[in-house]
């Protein structure tokens, strides 16, 4: 974790805070001192999660206040992550600042991110669409992976549970000369014991057989310029259902079972240009396929997401300016009505490019007041122009108190069948009565931090209130007609 010692001055008297002032990335994209950031960012290191060992990020994040991983299906253990009470699709999951976790992978992919990859996790609760675009309405979870240059040469972690959940993490690094290092990590998770403690003839937890391979390269360059590149592959075989189910019943109605095969490839990286100004390009790509049966109902889907972003950062006087351009292209296809043409006769996959631009100014008005103004413009060929303004203000009268206010708007393009599990697993007919336009919201939150010195330690009191207003929230009607889901 990046950190720096800091002395603070308040009311003309020098105060030794004696604490570590962390450097955070998520709230403003660039590295900034946590105490100076007008956006409240929470940091959780790997040591925090080691206090309660878990095999993956989905389970580990449950220890963070205000974040709730939720299982939406007791049969196949579909899960998502809620922030400030908002459902999982409103939470953006990043890996090294990249939108790697696409909508299809939120259904099962979150449990496929092993803790062995994690250096730290940064959490922003509240609106972040002005920087990150669609899906960042409730907040952002940025999973920052280990740096190959500083990672240990070899590490291993083996864990099991009383339910025979077995998890193995092995990683090693090697160098190519003085300026390049590679980190290679292997994760294997297996849970194959059928358990039915409540005697309902259904598995109490989904059986899983999962492997993940991760390789990351970091490069040391002149003038501390950054460069990195990473690849990850994930395969998972997941099943839940009646106790007597086995693979020969896959796709039949004779014995009920939900069987999901997942294949996923990710690539992402960062490059700082060799120019006098600070110009950085980030890029990512993910390819995700799902082959599944919910009883006799097949669900086959493929999603490909390409993303590239270039931003420029310049500091002068009391202003820290940032401007950037982004391009994101999403391809999604499945065998549901969600990707049929308007007449319902031909397949029409979603192929959605979104071009965006953003600008942001962080203005340190005085030593006590910091103001952040941001604006983002996105253009989608179907939904056209989307505007996302942002305002953040921090008041800190001394090193021990900080009040932050954040306001912004958000939007999200809905992928119904990747997110609404009931639409896949139920026997109801799905009726879409009108075009599904992007969801829109206005978000605001107030955060107060009080640091209380206690000898050589520091107690932290952190309180937040938040409010979200939706102008076009898509909610399924499950009650009007028992045999239908109406949207």
From TrEMBL:
SUPFAM superfamilies: Porins. PROSITE patterns: TONB_DEPENDENT_REC_3 (PS52016). Its main location: membrane. It is found in: Cell outer membrane. Residues 186-480 form the TonB-dependent receptor-like beta-barrel domain. It is a multi-pass membrane protein. Residues 35-140 form the TonB-dependent receptor plug domain. The keyword Transmembrane applies. Pfam families: Plug, TonB_dep_Rec_b-barrel. Keywords: Cell outer membrane, Membrane, Receptor, TonB box, Transmembrane, Transmembrane beta strand, Transport. Belongs to the TonB-dependent receptor family. This is Outer membrane receptor for ferrienterochelin and colicins.
